[in-house]
Amino acid sequence: MKRVRNLLLMGVLLITVSTAMAQGPRFRGGYNNAMQPNRMLCTQLNLTAEQEQKIDDLRIKHLNEVTALQNEMNEKYARLRTLESANKPDMDAINKTIDEISSLKTQLMKKSAAHRAEVASLLTDEQRVLFNSRGRGMRMKGYGRMRGGRGLGSCMNNY
Prior knowledge:
The chain is built from 5 helices and no strands. It has helices at residues 2-22, 37-45, 49-84, 91-121, 125-134.
């Protein structure tokens, strides 16, 4: 009986540890200093203090521009869920809300592309090659997401 209990306990422990490990560093307490994506990016680009400051200013400006749009889009998604869950869904209202969400997504994507171009304009040719080679795949914490993008994060202040 004791052996069965120990095996069961070991199984539960194994599943718990496996799940935690599969989640990656963000779910295990974050990145340590050597692993922080923006610090790695800044180190690789070898940004000057002036470049870091200008990029941080652009990031703040970008955040101010996109936050209202992201909030409005989230409200539209909530409205869409409400419309779709009605007993008799109003397809005209649903389609109108979908069109509004699409318009907001387009605006966010355009703002993110413009922000990225502004950041790239601050870089030297060598830095720009590296920045562009990383492409949109650099969507890490602080850099941005496709759903609106938060902009290139500060090298000095990631969180």
